[in-house]
Request: fold
Amino acid sequence: MATDQWKLTTDRLIRKGYFPLELPPPFNTSALADSLGYLPDLKTLSPKSSKSIFFSIPKSWPARRVLSVPNPLHQTMLCQTLSDHWPSLKKIFEESAVSLSTPTIFEDGIRAVSRRADFDVWSVERFRRSSPFRFVLRTDLSRFYHTIYTHSLPWAIHGKDSAKQDHSPNLFGNVIDIRMRNTQDQQTIGISVGPDTSFIMAEVIAARIDQDLEEEIGNLNGTRYVDDFHLYFDTRADAEAAYEALERITKKYELELNQSKTVISEGPDTGEPIWKTALKAQRLRGSGNGQQSSLISFISKTFELVKAFPGEGVLAYAIKKAATRTFDDDASPIFESFLLAALVHDASTLPVVTRLLFDRKTAGLISIEANILETLSRLSLFHAKLRHHYEVSWLLWLFKVLSAKVPSEVLTEIAQLEDSFVALVALDLLTSGLADGADLSLWKALMTGGSLYAEHWLVAYEAAKKGWLPMLDKDYISSDPFFGALALNDVSFYKELEGSGVDYVTLGVPY
Reply:
């Protein structure tokens, strides 16, 4: 249930909206949120800007999506600014007649703010809203987050003319611009992909585009979902005129439409993907005779659809459907083999497969454990050689939750990856006795005071605080006013498993 959107707090933005959801579950920011009332005045601290951690996640091969995790000092300051001005930002969102991705606070949401509608609702609304019209204009903003000009944030909030005449902090949009740039080493092109603060500011710009378009063409019918526009018209000429107007407006904000994805077609705008309809219709026996054969048929159909619709999440959807069944002794090895095949062909399934394998191990249901561990080892080597940090960090975490030891040759290859997330999960495994024998010199070289505001701030702080790696500079944490305060308040960004880990490992990894 959506709650009062006027109450977006810094605590909520840090606790639920800072780290990307795609990270393995041990990475969290709750302790930072708990410490907010005990930190020094952040505006008095230096340096004035910092670098983010970058890592990429898989999309449709060979494309990857780059996410980033800003430094906690400057991200906290940005969160404070957005929290202070949330009522004004909310008013801008409400002026859009077509957005279904308006940042919304849900009482039990796993993020600080979420899109007002999910994909299923968007699909229904597209059909419902398009049904009275003959033509559909589909287009999107090209590389939206990566091309946002930070100076356009005050333009969208206050109006371009007003913002260009007044660059002072009197306009809070200018403060947001500064705070955003401070999280990304003063870069003005692009904003971080991952934090909810970026989602909020991207929606401010997109909502202004919606409003400007409606002012230019009159009554606006359709939907916008983040950067995807689906607009509806009586004539092709009206659709073409709207596209030309939208192109002019986006350029005003230094953005561009994606011409390769722009199409005008006859409606209606049917929403549900063909592959999803096909999988919904595919029967899976719950138990009894024929369960194994029905599962094999389901898997065959799934991979047929994966080939036809690459990069559309077919495997993740199929796994979630299959997971609703309880498999007998004959079908269980087939189901687990399906999970392994999913990891091989689509690494974005790692979160849901991790959850399922952990649950099966906890319940004593694992039937092909040797095959699972051999596959994890092989995939870890494969992705480590390709520098796929997302995949390696999740695979290491899967070793951890299965209480399985990482082969020495795997850890040796992984220790050559200069990545904070990979390093911390690997160090956790080493400390837990689930790995040994690797040369850690690459990670040890990151343990300097200079790393605290550079791209390796996380491992420089966390590995030092936990005593996992030695500091090369004499106690650089306690000598830094901000990170020293974090350490005094026992702030940690990585939480090891405690006990069975049943509650913890499932956090943020739903079916």
